[in-house]
């Protein structure tokens, strides 16, 4: 180029363009594991506390009798059907999922491994986010985090916790949280 004015103009334009490109590209703030945990737990804590649903199998029925949560009132001729009444001690810590205070135990065979009833604790708690993984990049300004959603047993007596730890109960579920960038801050979008 023979015109130094044009050269300076083009150089200035190139520098301005480079400055806009660099200045206009704002990188997303990092999402740390601690921030993800805090956002997930805040979501759980903002929802209503809920009872724990417990599947009670044959072992759990025997444990409930030992804990004096229910007492047998009728045994049927086949030897493995029975009726149980929830005791006053049991009524202080649990409720039958179907309502009432009589358990109609009707397995298809003695010690049926698949049969059970469902009860709910009267103690209500929030879920707990545990074992939160490192945030991973997803599409666009989105990050995902895997974690364990755990049942919290605060206020639930030990014998009832024991029944809740028997086979058939889910105490922890692996979940995935999705975070999106909104106005320069990370927001919890969903938990699946």
Protein architecture, described:
The protein has 192 residues and is of the alpha+beta class. The chain has one domain. Helix content is 29%, strand content 34%. It is built from 5 helices and 11 strands, in the order ααβαββαββββββαββ. The strands form 3 sheets. Strands 7, 8, 9, 10 and 11 form a 5-stranded antiparallel beta sheet that branches. α3 (58-66) runs antiparallel to α5 (158-164). It is elongated. The protein starts with a helix and ends with a strand. Mean pLDDT is 89; it is low at 9-25.
Number of DSSP-assigned strands: 11
Please give the share of residues in helix.
25-40%
Q: Please state the average pLDDT score.
A: 89
Overall outline: elongated
Give the uncertain stretches in residue-range form: 9-25
Order of helices and strands: HHEHEEHEEEEEEHEE
From the structure provided, what is the oligomeric state, counting identical versus distinct chains? single chain
How would you summarize this macromolecular structure in one to three sentences?
The chain has five helices and eleven strands.
Write the layout of secondary structure elements.
Elements: H1 4-24, H2 33-46, E1 50-56, H3 58-66, E2 70-75, E3 82-86, H4 88-91, E4 94-96, E5 102-105, E6 117-125, E7 128-130, E8 136-137, E9 142-150, H5 158-164, E10 172-182, E11 185-191
Antiparallel strand pairs: 1-6, 2-3, 3-5, 4-6, 7-9, 8-9, 9-10, 10-11
């Amino acid at each position: 180029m023979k015109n130094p004015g044009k050269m300076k103009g083009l150089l200035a334009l190139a520098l301005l363009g480079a400055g806009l490109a660099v200045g206009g590209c704002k990188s997303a703030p990092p999402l740390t594991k601690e921030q993800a945990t805090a956002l997930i737990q805040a979501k759980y804590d903002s929802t209503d506390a809920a009872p724990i649903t417990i599947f009670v199998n044959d072992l759990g029925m025997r444990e409930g009798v030992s804990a004096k949560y229910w007492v047998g009132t009728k045994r049927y001729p086949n030897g493995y059907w029975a009726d149980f009444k929830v005791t006053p001690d049991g009524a202080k810590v649990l409720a039958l999922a179907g309502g009432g205070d009589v358990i109609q135990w009707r397995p298809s065979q003695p010690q049926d491994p698949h049969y059970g009833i469902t009860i709910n604790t009267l103690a209500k708690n929030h879920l707990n986010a545990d074992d939160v993984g490192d945030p991973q990049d997803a599409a666009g300004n989105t990050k995902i985090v895997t974690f364990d959603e755990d049942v919290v047993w605060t206020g639930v007596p030990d014998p009832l916790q024991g029944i809740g730890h028997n086979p058939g109960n889910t105490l922890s579920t692996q979940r995935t949280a999705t975070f999106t960038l909104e106005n320069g801050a990370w927001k919890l979008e969903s938990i699946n």
